[in-house]
Amino acid sequence: MLAPVTAVAALPHHALRYRWTILGVATFTQAASAFFVQSIGAMGVHLEHDLHLSTAQLGLLLSAAQLAPLVGLLVAGELLDRYNERWVVGAGASIVAAALALGSMAPGYASLLLVLLVVGAGYSTVQPGGSKSVASWFDESQRGLAMGIRQAGLPLAGVGAAAVMPVLADAFDWRMTLRVGSLVALLGAIAFMTFYRSPPISQKGVAARTHTTLKARLQMFRRPSMAKSVMSGVCMISVHSAVGVLTVLYLHETASLSAGRAALVLVAAQGAGVAGRVCLAAWSDRRKSGRYATVMTCMMAVTAGMMALITPLGHSPVTASVLFVWLGFFGIGWYGPWIAYVAESAPPNQTGFALGLTMATTQSAVILAPPTLGLLAVEARINRQAILTRENPPPPEFSLLQDEISLTRLTGSPEIMKEQLEHLLYVVERGTVTLQIVPSRGEHVGNSGAFTIATLADRTEIAYADMAARGLSMSDPDDIATLHRNLMSVRSLALPVDQSIEMIQKVVREKWT
């Protein structure tokens, strides 16, 4: 149990009221400090396009912000047990603000990675510092609720960032989002240093505090409660990372939602996470089986949600969106009861170090999950392409009509364009794909948008058409007939296969080499 909170019940009435101010300030400071980092997933499409990033590189941006806390959380925990949270947390939030301001002048991806390392170092004090400050002001009967509200700061930052940052990136550029993130973090630092006060605990409680060696403190790992905290934390924080990084990309690529609509689903998932952190933590205050049982409930819920997402249900825009909101509620909401459990399991007068140690351990999952998930997404795309080159069962017959302008329109970098076109030549020369280039000759029905017609094994046909808001699947015979007529009209304008190959080779040689 926490030694600093033993005197909470004896606080004067005005102090009991002021603890809600402490809770509000701690929540705002966490949200403000995490504001930019929480926007990286929502800006995934913009960052991939503007900085020419792969999904794995996008995930690495999040990992960079989480790398410094591996050590920083341990240092922060020690500082919090020795010094006033007011200055430790305020200094950390100020470092976040300064780093983001400098990052707005970064020349490219590598510099942005370095900036996010510094951001992570500053944020190392905000997370355990805010949790300790709230835990010291609230007793057991309301600590879960208070911790849940406090931990709602992170998904609150995600909600605000997902709603605001993509709009700023569209209107200005990604550098403007760093400037805004810097300003918000600075406001958080000022608020905490202005309003935070330590709880008026007894002098006896203060005198009882002693400083132990680092080796002695690390013995916390032998406590069963700490082992359970670490194992569950590593699992659940991986889910949290997946929701933040892959929601928009998954819904855009798999469920055919536009980037804007997918970002709105991420906002809804983050909002569900806010509700989850408060509701689940409050539930843990009243649950006879304890706070850890609530964490286990969350683990079972997210397992069910992820299993549903990898079934055909995950390809439906509506069902996939609902599943991500479900994952947001439990996959983000778990943190409220979990952090309260960690704080209450800490040895007397070592709350800060216990929080820092547990969070530092779970940082391994925070760091590894985003790039790992990004690599898995890339691998899934590669596996889809392997359908065209497989031997058993035989690959499907694939006929493609491609606009000439797509050969010369820069997507990514010249190196990427060269590799893409060379790969296209490779699959065509293997005979698995039939490709014809449609010369740019003004208006024709193909200019209205791309579409695909697929013939299934039983000879029934379905079609898919790209639209501004989202893709549209069709199986109505009249719709299929219309698309067949459009296909014949466009094919009549296309070059023969051999001339199409020669055109691609010429473009690669003259423009992209």
TrEMBL record:
Give the keywords, sorted.
Answer: Membrane, Transmembrane, Transmembrane helix
Q: Which SUPFAM superfamilies match?
A: MFS general substrate transporter
Q: Which InterPro entries does the protein's record reference?
A: DUF5753, MFS, MFS-Transporter, MFS_dom, MFS_trans_sf
Compartment(s): Cell membrane
Name the membrane topology term: Multi-pass membrane protein
Source organism, top-level taxon = Bacteria
- Transmembrane annotation, as ranges: 20-40, 60-80, 87-103, 152-172, 178-196, 230-250, 262-280, 292-311, 323-343
Q: Which residues form the Major facilitator superfamily (MFS) profile domain?
A: 19-430
| Stored PANTHER family | BLL3282 PROTEIN
Q: What is this protein called?
A: Major facilitator superfamily (MFS) profile domain-containing protein
